[in-house]
Specification:
Layout lengths: L1 E7 L2 H15 L5 E3 L6 E9 L5 H12 L5 E13 L2 E11 L1 H15 L13 E7 L4 H10 L10 E3 L1 E10 L2 E11 L3
Antiparallel strand pairs: 1-3, 1-8, 2-6, 4-5, 4-7, 5-6, 8-9
């Protein structure tokens, strides 16, 4: 099964992100937009994991995250991977108490390394909005993104837990389901 650790985005903010997608590119072909229900902040992607490793993963992560604190994040700018001159992915940046979010990521790396999972070399906190699969759509999206004023500084959200999610790939797109929740203090 394909597994990853992620922070859930609150429903009202998912709706605003969906509206942002529409304003940026509802008329553009060549962009595969992330479905509204699939918005999340990935902290660690595990990939394919044998089912018999699941119990051990859950156990070591619960122990590792037992002292993590809840914290607040907010959305910032729109960006592109690998670069705005050759955009392949459009994303929404994250700010706020990111040091606490990154600490959760480091704890995941430390807990999972003995189980054979490689540490994440670089974490770029972002939420993927879409994937650009036709070159012609890229410049239009970049122009529209420059006009973006943000979902708003007042739209921060509480990060009170981390989810271990399963990703089932289907022809119509991935289906995510929560396998385990790790609740933070505070």
């Amino acid at each position: 099964m394909r597994l990853f650790f992620a922070v859930e985005i609150p429903e009202p903010l998912k709706k605003e992100m969906f509206a942002l997608q529409k304003s940026l590119g509802a008329d553009l072909s060549g962009v595969k937009w992330v479905e509204e229900e699939n918005f999340h902040l990935t902290l660690k992607f595990l990939g394919e994991v044998p089912e018999n490793k699941l119990r051990e993963i859950v156990s070591v992560v619960h122990k590792s995250l037992e002292n993590c604190l809840s914290h607040r994040l907010r959305f910032t700018n729109i960006g592109f991977f690998p670069h705005h001159n050759r955009p392949r992915v459009i994303w929404l940046g994250i700010s706020g108490e990111t040091d606490l979010t990154l600490e959760v990521g480091r704890k995941l790396d430390e807990a999972l390394a003995p189980l054979g999972f490689e540490p994440s070399l670089k974490r770029s906190l972002h939420i993927t909005l879409g994937r650009i699969n036709k070159e012609a759509a890229g410049p239009k999206l970049v122009r529209r993104a420059r006009e973006y004023k943000g979902i708003g500084e007042d739209k921060d959200f509480q990060v009170a837990e981390l989810h271990l999610c399963r990703s089932d790939l289907t022809p119509s797109g991935p289906i995510y389901s929560v396998i385990e929740k790790f609740v933070f203090k505070g």
